[in-house]
Amino acid sequence: MKAGWMICAFFLLASVVSGAGQSPAAAKALSPLEQTLIASEKSLIEAKKKDDGAFFKRTLSANFSLVGADGRLLQGQEAVDDLGDSGLVELTAYDMRVVAVGEDAAIVTYDAIVRKKPEEDQGPPPRYQHFSSVWVKQADAWKLKFHQATAAHWGDW
User: Fold this and answer.
1) Which residues lie across from 60 on neighbouring strands?
2) Residue 154: exposed, middle, or buried by beta-carbon count in 10 A (0-12, 13-18, 19+)?
């Protein structure tokens, strides 16, 4: 019986050691579309942090709309004004993904850690959020048509 346990332990140890020596799967190379839209989304994040009106003017589609973490749908100038937020302390994105919807449209999704100064009438927004952006190609330029923030952990609010 003791020899059986030793044989099992030997094979278990051998499988762990052989598995540890294998290199992890190589990360999938990003397509040109993925590279372009991930770079565009990262630029959007930086513009949000700075409340960069010039960026928004050249990047947002004429009929841009957004749904905030509070669930309200904003359109037109109200949406643009809400997108740029000077109270933003941190917006750290991770796990960005691009889903092509056609030749001239794609969705970028990602998770983010968000820290914002609390407003007088309410506490800070959820710290962990999921973002989705719809980008459309208009005359050789990618424009942001829709943006949504969704609380990832409801108890975070």
Assistant:
1) 144
2) exposed
Question: Which positions ≥6 away from 88 have C-beta within 8 Å?
Answer: 48, 49, 114, 115, 116
pTM of the model: 0.76
User: What φ, ψ does residue 126 adopt, rounded to 5°?
Assistant: -55, 135
For residue 6, give every residue at least 6 positions away whose Cβ sits within 8 Å of its Cβ, in sequence order, or none.
none
Task: Show the CA angle centred on residue 50, arms to residues 44 and 52, nearest 5°.
Answer: 65
* Number of C-beta neighbours around residue 95 at 10 A: 9
Distances (CA, A) of 24 to 16, 19, 21, 39: 14, 10, 9, 26
Ordered alpha helix ranges (H), the chain: 2-20, 32-50, 53-59, 76-83
Tokens of 24: 């992890």
Residue 40 CB partners (closer than 8 Å, separation 6+): 59, 108, 135, 142, 144
Question: What pLDDT, in 10s, does the model give residues 47-105?
Answer: 988 889 899 999 999 999 999 888 899 998 898 888 876 677 788 999 999 999 999 99
